[in-house]
Each structure stands twice: as structure tokens, then as C-alpha cells.
Amino acid sequence: MKVAITSSGNTLKSTLDKRFGRCSFFAIYDTLTDEVEFIPNPNKDAEEGAGPASVQLVASVPVEKIVSGEFGFKIKSLLVELRIQMIVVKDADKTIEDIIELLKH
To answer: Hey, how many other C-beta atoms are within 10 angstroms of the C-beta on 60?
Structure first.
């Protein structure tokens, strides 16, 4: 299974980016292979529609779960429709590495 994690940078030491649609990167964690790939978010500076465009990006991977600090209202209904689980992590100090460890347990 693949999980998208919103990230402030492109390393495992990067912190969680609390914004879903405007995060800097998506860390794509594969629970089967234990590999992580970082995808730059081309929608982070979009004037509008960053959230739905980011949903399409991660849905094309495809992922089954997304970890972020927050999800906008429009995003929630899209993700429910696509059957992608939302996981909210309020601790912005968590690194991508920390979140992957949490996902393993």
C-alpha cells in the first residue's frame, strides 16, 4: 500500500507540511517495499484549485492514505469519493521519518 505524506522538504528529516494542497512535497511511502519517493508539488503556488489538483496528483500514484496537518472541506469530499483515507497529524514537528515509524506500528 502507498501512503502520501505532506512534506516541507525532500528528505526523511523534513517536517510534516500542515497544508495539503500547498505542501512543498509529497513523500510517497510504500508499506510493502519500505521505500520512500519524494514528489515535488507543482500546485503549491497555484492561485486557486491547489487542493483538487493535488488530490489528482496523489490519486494517480495511486495512494490509499494521505497524512497531513489539515484537509480543506472540498478535499474531504473528493477523498471520500476516491476512497482515500485521511490521517490528520497535528504535531508539525514530526518528521517524515517519525510518521513512517508511526505507520509501521
So the answer is: 8
For the chain, how long is the longest CA-to-CA vector? 38
Q: What is the pTM of this model?
A: 0.96
Residues 6+ apart with CB under 8 A from 4: 26, 27, 28, 29, 58, 61, 63, 65, 66, 67
Mean pLDDT over residues 59-67, rounded? 97
Domains of the chain: 2-104 (3.30.420.130)
**Structure confidence at residue 7 as a pLDDT band (50, 70, 90):** very high
